[in-house]
Amino acid sequence: MVGGGPGSLIGKVHAMGAMLDGQISLVCGAFSSDPEKSEIRGREYFLPPERIYPAWQEMIQREKDLPDGERMDFLCIATPNHLHYGPARMALENGFHVVCDKPLTHTAEDARKLVSLVEKTGLLFVMTYPYVAYPMVKEARARIDDGQLGKIRKVVVEYPQGWLSAPVEKAGNRQALWRTDPDRSGPGGAMADIGVHAFYLAEYVTGLQVTALMADLNPVVPGRRLDDDGNILLRFSNGAGGVLFATQIAAGEENDVNIRVWGEKGGLEWHHHDPNRLILRIEGEPVRVLRPGHSEYLFHGAMYASRLPAGHPEGYIEAFGNIYRQVAACIRARYRGADPSPEESDLPNIYTGLRGMLFQEAALASSADRQWVTMP
Amino acid sequence: MVGGGPGSLIGKVHAMGAMLDGQISLVCGAFSSDPEKSEIRGREYFLPPERIYPAWQEMIQREKDLPDGERMDFLCIATPNHLHYGPARMALENGFHVVCDKPLTHTAEDARKLVSLVEKTGLLFVMTYPYVAYPMVKEARARIDDGQLGKIRKVVVEYPQGWLSAPVEKAGNRQALWRTDPDRSGPGGAMADIGVHAFYLAEYVTGLQVTALMADLNPVVPGRRLDDDGNILLRFSNGAGGVLFATQIAAGEENDVNIRVWGEKGGLEWHHHDPNRLILRIEGEPVRVLRPGHSEYLFHGAMYASRLPAGHPEGYIEAFGNIYRQVAACIRARYRGADPSPEESDLPNIYTGLRGMLFQEAALASSADRQWVTMP
Amino acid sequence: MVGGGPGSLIGKVHAMGAMLDGQISLVCGAFSSDPEKSEIRGREYFLPPERIYPAWQEMIQREKDLPDGERMDFLCIATPNHLHYGPARMALENGFHVVCDKPLTHTAEDARKLVSLVEKTGLLFVMTYPYVAYPMVKEARARIDDGQLGKIRKVVVEYPQGWLSAPVEKAGNRQALWRTDPDRSGPGGAMADIGVHAFYLAEYVTGLQVTALMADLNPVVPGRRLDDDGNILLRFSNGAGGVLFATQIAAGEENDVNIRVWGEKGGLEWHHHDPNRLILRIEGEPVRVLRPGHSEYLFHGAMYASRLPAGHPEGYIEAFGNIYRQVAACIRARYRGADPSPEESDLPNIYTGLRGMLFQEAALASSADRQWVTMP
Amino acid sequence: MVGGGPGSLIGKVHAMGAMLDGQISLVCGAFSSDPEKSEIRGREYFLPPERIYPAWQEMIQREKDLPDGERMDFLCIATPNHLHYGPARMALENGFHVVCDKPLTHTAEDARKLVSLVEKTGLLFVMTYPYVAYPMVKEARARIDDGQLGKIRKVVVEYPQGWLSAPVEKAGNRQALWRTDPDRSGPGGAMADIGVHAFYLAEYVTGLQVTALMADLNPVVPGRRLDDDGNILLRFSNGAGGVLFATQIAAGEENDVNIRVWGEKGGLEWHHHDPNRLILRIEGEPVRVLRPGHSEYLFHGAMYASRLPAGHPEGYIEAFGNIYRQVAACIRARYRGADPSPEESDLPNIYTGLRGMLFQEAALASSADRQWVTMP
Fold first, then answer.
1. For A306-330, what is the mean pLDDT?
2. pLDDT for the residue B69
3. Which residues in chain C are contacts of B272 at CB distance < 8 A?
4. What is the Cα B1 distance to its own chain's centre?
5. Residue D355 has what DSSP assignment?
6. Would you state the pLDDT for residue B305?
């Protein structure tokens, strides 16, 4: 693992998710740019001292030299945004698969370079977009793919948070500090940080691509250099319209990702605050509430993405765990020279990462110019 | 009453709402342009034959000639949209107060003429926007007005319906027929029919005015001449951003009007499908759910707008009833030469009607030109 | 109307419910044992002075003497419990149909006398149990009757209120005063006042009868002479088990009536706090949520019991209105010499009233003796 | 670990919960009474062959002989019910701490023997009742302990499942087979299997003890030898009344554990199907919804029991993880010679296990004799 040092939340989530199913072990790490902090964190994970590295460059180099079966199988990148590109590139160049937190890079240009590298090396490159890994989100996609809603007409996708409601970065909140700093976070604020989750969720669930958007980004808290709130009109490849909003200044909100999709025959609805529930409305029929674990009516992808019988709630760590379980399955399949199953390979990949960068750039451009922008 | 003949839903709702509290009686009517149908409906209301009129012109004329205490106190207009202006104008010109279903007219120009007439005559002119008459919506407004959310930052207001999901107007659905016909419905479709409810709800609850909008109206069902779906970005007078969507092709939806508002300190949320509930989220505090009938914590306006103790659900007819109860109180106050109380006079009025027309025109223009449009 | 004087809630509810659909007019009343108060209330209803009576005895006598078409069609009894029997008896003896608030009487013995009188006279006798008049409760009954849950196995029915949580009767709360006074309320407290609603709801929805019960009544607030809380185990005619609880000391509760029923194939659930929703769970299928107004999937009884299209909430007054609309239909049918339809005659009747008294007596006996008691 | 062989669900849950926080490793196991199956499961956990044992007796013996720092720290018992007592006893006798799935034993007599052994050895003995390990359940207890509801008056606790709705044991369902077999499951059915969770939840949350109960156990599915459904009236040490029901034949239900508690000042409510939510109703105040991760308003115990910031759902595995994280902390504290913190030691223990057995015996006796039974 790169990053995830003391004080990092997402590093721990990666670790818990990766190890949840007993298929993956954390074998080495460069957890911080401060070697001492890296050391502290490494010991907390009970790593042998020789595999706690002071810097990611050294880690990739030295792991590469370890014998087969000992060296790490893949690199997990859990650093702040500006430190994704470097480790990703070096890992790929040295033959390591990569699991990378979003966003992929700071610019679409860098993202394209990584795409080339992945295409050249054929290595696995997985983005940890956790919301699409929930069983009921997979079910939503499967039902739409199966035509149960008919042609899609309208999508409303939302990501309200409230934690940047006050200028907490001025009060020393570390998470807020780097996220509101263009140097470390990149040119996008809330829309890049969380809007991109909503964007991918919409594309994943519908199987459509956004072809044009009209953004209104709004830096609400005085003194902020990056957008902390924004609303976007969307148009999709099939003509459907939509709305996306993402905000970090919605005081009182936690971390609610919501999607509603309507088609000719009906609609569906999912909320992260109660993730084990998919609401399905078919015109002229009672509303249906689908829940995980029901092999009688769920598609296989949703069944694959839960571990427990119906009525035993799973959450965010399990969603991360789903991604890692699939990563392990894909790597095992490569060792065996086999193809992973459709459920195993249903993973956000390097192109997901690239589209996220394209979305971010389009949103910034549209908002600045106050006009519709097309997406490739 | 004008309109509300056989087959009309809204006419019955007006009647039930008006008579709910025993303060208003239906004394006469011209229920249909077909005198026979007017007769049928009038008898259903047990009206004396001489006060069932074959046409509204005749009704206004003849009622005017009745002695004090016998003639109708006000005219209720429950006709299709293209028949609002005529009766409204004639009623005002003949000294009758008016209660008018929305939209006020077909054009903002006509609306302005009625504004002048109201200002000249000093008569009461009330628009029946029922959603703002729910107790928990009044509470939302009162809390925001009281500063409990701090400065408003973001508004999301929605009106999804699914009943025009299929081309039911081709199958003879009468409600659909006139609503999808520009001649009878006016130049606006879903946005004019229901979007305007969402628009007014947003302005009412926040106490702000929309100053600019960017609309994307979308005629989804092939062959329709009017928009049946649309998404709009909003900007409010205080700089807040927002989203409004209204759709009649969201298959599976009933008639859900939803509003969420966030300010510096917290947010609130109301849904028409469970109207006796206002969700209030103050940053750093537990979510609160407010319900009608609780004098211990509700503002007076919300208490005034319900009839039953806590735990006894009221609904749409009661919301209509609230408007009519206030109309009765305002008229009684005039008889007494007194001012109505703030709760009694908290009514959608002629300016509400005008703003609805301006909104509709701005949305149509913005969508056609694909650019932001300012509102006066 | 008898009772429903100034300060009475239920009198107003009867009036609003009765007049909601424009089929019934309030034509006379003896609203209070205090003639002055009766006068005040009668004027509020705009009654002619000669039909505002100082006492119910006089009203029944004088109305009887009015000519056909002028005299009242039926008597509505909305007095405190100890004043149900007298007016009911006299009304029946003088040829008037009766609509009576629950409980029927103070004792099962009195109830049986009224049963005889109803059987002898053939008059209509309707009890206003409003919860069974909600459309989704009618749907629940219809689905069970249709066998959709299979054989019923278990019933849980609840009525939690919190308004007697503190000794408010000592603070002068009038509703609390007579309800906690055995002389006016009868020997039963919460179980008689609200438990009986839960009891009837269970019998109505399942179509079964309770055959045995084991009660634990609990006067919680010190100094109360009547039970204000109680829990009961139930056994039904088909062997199913169940639980009923009713409480008025559940601080924080409003007026939530809840029922859950499970059978061999699935279960259903209804809550008064969100009455336009019936939750249906069939084993191996997604949970279904049924809502009023959907002719595509609702049984006729549920359609008959709502007035508005799907998505327009109705509530408590409308449930009362359903009872009165059916009463009007039944009386009209008698005038025509016809039978009312099954939807029209689906009304709580004199036997419902009697079973309520038997339930109350069984609960009191079981709790006193701490043993199971059988019901006839 | 003892038990948890191929086909076992709960074994995997123990493993995932134990390893979630990186504090505990699975070092050895006797996963099945069939050595071959034990071997298979052990390899799935990547255990070294010499620590995959063919039988638990051998495991305890040989682990005991391993040097300090190598041998297992505690034994986890995840076998069917009839195999809890043996391993528990031998582990204690050989100096190992024990984490034991419920129920503790088959009889209260055996349970008392284990109590003596724990008291004599001073070893840690933890029961894995996961529902009390959810953060919002800990918050419920803390709020009641803090007096926020006042004196407790009424408790309603429920555990509805539907998976034994049909005679699935005859169709070869392995979980159903041993659970409906008195030889392997003990004399209690649903009440012992899941009712005991509800029982402990009620005692944990309220801090009260049940002193008397009146049970009506009901074997619903023909041919079953053990109760699969039951309803119980409760009385608590402070005079409060209550209801407990547990059922495995409630067709359509998943695994919903629900508790409602009311006191003088208000009530609270928790549902396992949406576990990250505690509903708090204080009389005269808006309903409050509390959610994990909010240090601004939660008690320390609830904060300690979640890992993620507000808005990131945790579930059943995390609840198990909480128990194991506390076990690890308690063992570490012993190594250090220190006392664990109150949050660390808030664990279901050997007395919890004993009370579960006493509850089961009282319920069986009461139902058989159809009378109230007191509990010690």
1. 97
2. 87
3. 311, 313
4. 17
5. H
6. 98
Helices and strands of chain A, counted as H and E runs: 14, 13
Residues 6+ apart with CB under 8 A from B69: none
Phi, psi of C78 (to 5 degrees): -130, 35
Identify the pLDDT of residue C187. 84
Cβ of A284 and C291 within 8 Å? Answer: no
Q: Alpha-carbon distance C356 to D150, whole Å?
A: 34
Residue to substitute from B312, B322, B325, B332, interface C, most C β-carbons within 10 A: B312
Structure tokens, C137: 């409760």
CA distance D322 to D313: 14
pLDDT in tens, B327-336: 999 999 999 9
pLDDT tens, position by position, C14-60? 999 999 999 999 999 999 999 999 999 999 999 999 999 999 999 99
Buried b (16+ CB within 10 A) or exposed e, D177-211: bebbbeeebbebbbbbbbbbbbbbbbbbbbebebe
Residues from D in contact with B at Cβ < 8 Å: 280, 284-291, 294, 296-297
Which 3 state secondary structure label does DSSP give D205?
helix
For every residue of B320-357, DSSP letters joined together read HHHHHHHHHHHHHHHHHT-PPPHHHH---BHHHHHHHH
Q: Give the pLDDT score at C145.
A: 98
What would the mean pLDDT of B309-324 be, rounded to a whole number? 98
Q: Distance (Å, rounded) from C-alpha A332 to C-alpha A153?
A: 40
Q: Which residues in chain D are closer than 8 Å to B280, comparing Cβ atoms? A: 286
Average pLDDT (B117-129) is 98
Whether the per-residue pLDDT at A186 is higher than 90: the answer is no
Q: Mind listing the domains of chain A with CATH numbers?
A: 2-123 (3.40.50.720), 132-309+352-369 (3.30.360.10)
Residue located via tokens 């084990």:
A276
Indicate the residue of C229, C262, C263 with minimum beta-carbon distance to D241.
Answer: C229
CA angle (D157, D161, D167) in 5-degree steps: 140
First to last CA, chain B: 33
Q: What is the pLDDT of residues C239-285, one digit of tens each?
A: 999 999 999 999 999 999 999 999 999 999 999 999 999 999 999 99
pLDDT for A175 equals 83
Residue C14 backbone dihedrals phi, psi, to 5 degrees = -55, -45
